Amino acid sequence: MPKQDNLAFGFPVFLLSESVIFVSFFVTYALLRWKNPNWFPLGVSGLDIPRAAINTVILVASSGVIYFAERALDRHQLIKFRRLWLLTAAMGAVFLIGQVLEWRNMPFGLDAGLAGATFYLLTGFHGMHVFTGVVLLLYMYFRSLVPGNYNAGHQGVSAVSLFWHFVDLIWIILFLLLYVW
Predict the structure, then answer these.
(1) pLDDT category, 175, cuts 50, 70, 90?
(2) What SS3 string covers the chain?
(3) pTM higher than 0.85, yes or no?
(4) Is 177 left (phi over 0), alpha (psi -120 to 50) or beta?
(5) Which of 11, 41, 93, 133 is deepest in the core (most CB within 10 A)?
C-alpha cells in the first residue's frame, strides 16, 4: 500500500481512537455531574464563562483559518498558505495561553473533589492535544519551506488540518459540558 494511502487510512483511525477516549471522558463527566447536584466546591457557583467563550471563539475561528490555508495550498498560493497556517498556529497558542490564565485564576484546584479533578483532566487532556496540534502546524510550516515539498501532494497538511478540526470539535463539546451545563 502506498505511503499516501496509509496516511489517508491510518490518521482517521487514529482520530477515531482519540474520539473513543474523549467520549469516555464525556460520559464519565456527565454521569458524575448528574449524580452530584452540588457539583462545584463550596463558595464556587460556576466557571468563568466569558473567558472561556473568548477562547472558544479563537479556537473555532482557527478552524476557518486553517480551511482557507488548505484552499490556498490547493491553488498553489504557497505564501498565502504559510501566512494562514502560521496564523492558525498563533491562534492555537493564544488559546493555550488563555487556558493557562484561566487555570491560574480558578477558585479551585485539582484537589477540589470531582469538580476539580474532572475539570483539570478534561481541559488538560484537550490542552495537550492543542499543544500537539500547534507543534504539528509548525512542523508542516517548516516543511513548506522546502522547495517542491508539495509537488506530489500535501497529505500531511490535510492530516494536520483534520486533527485541528477534531481538536476544535472536542473543545465545543467540552465548552458545552463544562461551562454551559
Answers:
(1) very high
(2) CCHHHHHHHHHHHHHHHHHHHHHHHHHHHHHHHHHCCCCCCCCCCCCCHHHHHHHHHHHHHHHHHHHHHHHHHHCCCHHHHHHHHHHHHHHHHHHHHHHHHHHHCCCCCCCCHHHHHHHHHHHHHHHHHHHHHHHHHHHHHHHHCCCCCCCCCCHHHHHHHHHHHHHHHHHHHHHHHHHHC
(3) yes
(4) alpha
(5) 133
